[in-house]
Structures are given as structure tokens and as C-alpha cells.
Amino acid sequence: MFSTADFLQFTQWSGIATLVFAALAILSFVFKWGIRFRLVGTTGFMLVLTGGLFALSVVPLSRTVIPGAGKFTLVYDNGATQAVIAISPTISPSQLEATLRQAASNLYTYGRLGKRSDNYLTVRARTVIHPEPGLSVPLYLGQLKQSLESREDTEISVEIYTDKFAQLPKPTA
User: Which residues are listed as membrane-spanning (predicted)?
Assistant: First the structure.
């Protein structure tokens, strides 16, 4: 997998190629070459490609791995302060905490819109239980609150609803 430094190098080469195509496009208009409009299109494409490579060189592509985290699926994300993940009903409280931390790490971006009054990303974990045939009930097992001001927030609040774990189905042997 390429790193952000690799994408910065690709951006530099793409930028040089863009300038070459721009110079060729200008020359094609001066000398009235037949391919002048194709060169304008190629220059425009190179500009878009260079911009995309530059964006990839700025944004980190790696994800933090939290040991003990289980699999989760993003169910809801308002793009600002709230997200909900779906987890397995066989999860343990310690796995849930690690999974919530993993989800918060994956979902944190500088582009999230924090409100003035609530500048925290809240990630809630839920599973679906079936108390009787034909009935499905969402069951929230915990939540995590992390500041949107800093990725290195040391005061992450994790709440595990231990009373809700009693409602989970018992694993059969």
C-alpha cells in the first residue's frame, strides 16, 4: 500500500506532466495544430489527476488497529456528531469497548461538523435481538464520546451498558 509520501512524489511527477501538457496545448493554439482541443482535454484531465494525488498525499490512509476489537458495520452516520454501529450479539463487554474505540478512530476526520454546544463525536453500538419469532428489537450496548477538536483526545468517555448484556441470547454449545 502506498504511503502519503509516495503520493506526494506521484503528485510532483503528475504536476510536471500537467505543465508539459499545458505548454503543448498553448503551442498547439499558436501553431494551429489539429490536436489542440485534445491537448486541452488532456491538460484538464492531468489537472484533476494531480489534484486527486495531492489530496491523497495530505490525508493519512492508514487506520489504527485496536487489539481485541470485533467486527462492526456502520449503520448510521450524520457526518457531524453522531454515528451508530452494528455489532454481533455474542460480543463481550471488553470487546465492545475495543470495538467502540476502533470505530471512533476510523470515523474521526477533521471535516466533521461539530456544533458549538456539542463538539463531541458520539458512537453508539447496537445489536438486534429477537425475543420472539417475528419480532426484532434493537439493543444499545454502549457508547463512546470523543472530542472533535483533537484526534489525540485523552479524555474519551466510554459507557458500557452492562445491564443490557443480560438481555442478549445465551450462546448454545
Answer: 12-31, 43-61
